[in-house]
């Protein structure tokens, strides 16, 4: 099954392309379906030489240690590209990717994509812009791990997830669309599970509310932002 022009326009790196270019992409962009829990890519796998992007659903990107410990790197919502080494690197998967819910993935063969980039260089500019945003996010994360207190790192994580995945209003405040269990937050900011629980309960208790399953409600968004700034 091939993607339509309308579907391709929902992918971030293709969203502002001319309809003529989208028509060319639609002729070569294939759609693949994955059920919830299905692993798309194993860390260390040799990746097929293809462009990958999420059309529908959500993916989880993880690193798995030899001990079996799983560290969540990020969640990929619809519209985002992934598996960049398949077209711009060594072709080895740097992490494991699995479907958080039923998902659809778009792939385009590398040789075909590079040919289209030669004809329409603006495609490469959109891809570079996407990479630049991710590098900035990585820089901020590394800077936080080196120089900032754990409380600030946790606050930054919650603020980032609110911006990245959105929120919905509740009677208590605004709830993150993405669940963040203590264990996951601890791994993402480089602290212990016990320290994460303590900070959320004591240092951030009047700003955010933690509910069962990792449902985070932000009670005081302005104070949260003052901590992160």
From TrEMBL:
CDD domains reported for this sequence? CAP_ED
Keyword rRNA-binding: yes or no?
no
**Annotated source species:** Roseofilum casamattae BLCC-M143
On whether DNA-binding is a keyword of this UniProt record, the answer is yes
Q: Which domain of life is it from?
A: Bacteria
Where does the record locate the signal sequence feature? none
Which keywords accompany this UniProt record? DNA-binding, Transcription, Transcription regulation
User: What is the official name of this protein in its record?
Assistant: Crp/Fnr family transcriptional regulator
PANTHER family linked: CRP FAMILY TRANSCRIPTIONAL REGULATORY PROTEIN (PTHR24567), HTH-TYPE TRANSCRIPTIONAL REGULATOR ARCR (PTHR24567:SF74)
Any matching Pfam family:
cNMP_binding
The record's section on SMART domains has: cNMP (SM00100)
Question: Cyclic nucleotide-binding domain spans which residues?
Answer: 13-134
């Amino acid at each position: 099954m091939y993607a339509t022009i309308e579907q391709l326009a929902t992918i971030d790196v293709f969203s502002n392309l001319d309809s003529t270019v989208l028509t060319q992409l639609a002729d070569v962009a294939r759609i693949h379906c994955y059920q919830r829990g299905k692993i798309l890519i194993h860390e260390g796998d040799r990746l097929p030489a293809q462009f990958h992007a999420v059309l529908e659903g959500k993916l989880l990107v993880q690193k798995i240690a030899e001990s079996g410990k799983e560290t969540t790197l990020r969640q990929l919502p619809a519209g985002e590209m992934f598996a960049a080494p398949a077209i711009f690197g060594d072709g080895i998967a740097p992490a494991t990717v699995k479907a958080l819910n039923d998902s659809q993935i778009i792939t385009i063969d590398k040789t075909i994509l590079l040919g289209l980039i030669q004809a329409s260089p603006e495609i490469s500019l959109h891809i570079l812009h996407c990479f630049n945003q991710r590098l900035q996010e990585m820089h901020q994360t590394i800077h936080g791990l080196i120089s900032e207190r754990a409380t600030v790192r946790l606050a930054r994580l919650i603020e980032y997830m609110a911006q990245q995945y959105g929120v919905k209003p509740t009677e208590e405040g605004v709830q993150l669309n993405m669940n963040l269990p203590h264990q996951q937050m601890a791994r993402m900011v480089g602290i212990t599970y016990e320290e994460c629980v303590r900070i959320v309960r004591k240092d951030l208790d009047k700003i955010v509310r933690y509910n069962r399953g990792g449902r985070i409600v932000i009670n005081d968004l302005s104070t949260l932002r003052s901590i992160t700034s």
